Automatic annotation (TrEMBL):
It comes from Manihot esculenta (Cassava). Pfam families: SACS. PANTHER family: ATP_DNA BINDING PROTEIN, WU:FJ29H11. This is Sacsin/Nov domain-containing protein. SUPFAM superfamilies: ATPase domain of HSP90 chaperone/DNA topoisomerase II/histidine kinase. Residues 41-143 form the Sacsin/Nov domain. The lineage of its organism: Eukaryota, Viridiplantae, Streptophyta, Embryophyta, Tracheophyta. It comes from the Eukaryota.
Amino acid sequence: MMTPRDHIEFLRKEWFSVGGGTNYLAPMLSNAVEYLSAELYTKDVHFLMEVIQNAEDNEYPEEVDPSLEFVITTRDITATGAPATLLIFNNEKGFHGKNIEALCNVGNSTKKGNRKRGYIGEKGIGFKSVFLISAQPYIFSNGYQIRFNEKPRPPCKLGFIVPEWVEESPSLDDIQQIYGPSSSIPSTVIILPLKPDKMEAVKQQLSSLHPEVLLFLSKIKRL
């Protein structure tokens, strides 16, 4: 069984030909990514509600009260030069291989076929709505520590869907310091270095989040 890091290297090589041969699917993928970008930036998507809906869709251990926590820090823990960083903590079961692979695809989701089970969310957008506010979203979950890039990155020249392993910044110690040294970090942490022109909008969305939202959620008990 592959480790999380081996899995990411496998995806980069076999799906996107990073460090390998020519990716003959690159033109088709590029067109699909351009379509995704057009869909993402022309829709009136409230990114915060997308995050809450995705958390509502997640599976949780029986012994926990499902929760979603938001923390904004001015510490540049990702070393990207961001003026502020939003960290999202969720005590779900965490990401597995199929979830990671869904993020590396266009128009694919592990929610497909689950509509009757109560799954909600914006079709085709989901997690990728975070690109509205961050050019480099990070995910730390179940041993995975990866990031995606809005801008195409060499050598595969694709944005949005190519994962990169995070070597240093941020470290688990950085995340622990922000969450609090006396508490265990939840299983999934999404780290969003904010685009400078989105910082105030994010703060406004967070401040306008009302507790009444919980009334419309069947799983999440605490925001």
